[in-house]
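Please, structure for the following, as tokens.
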Amino acid sequence: MAPGVFGAYVADLIGAAITGAEEKVAHDVVVIDMRALVDSFDALVIASGRTDRQVRAIAEEVERLITVTLGVKPIHVEGVMQAQWIALDYGDVIVHVFDEATREYYDLEHLWNAATTYRR
């Protein structure tokens, strides 16, 4: 990720989310800088898994790693039961973990194409 682009706390959240996702072999991990477009949060972290089991494992590892390293729990978690699209809301950063078909369908990168995107 472009160092220094985000403040330290947000950069730490993003870094832990990416590390957690990559530890469970997530693919196509991107960070979308939302600061110029919305006031309610700074960044989206988006990752994909190939199966519902992998999507759930990625989300669980992201949550575990952020809790262990930063002592922060998500404000809200959505989608765990079906595990097609799990959203972890950390206030300043929202982490989305998709299965491939759901990610392609909702295409958040295209929806927010005016924002700066950083790919891993």
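The radius of gyration is 13 Å. The chain has a mean pLDDT of 94.
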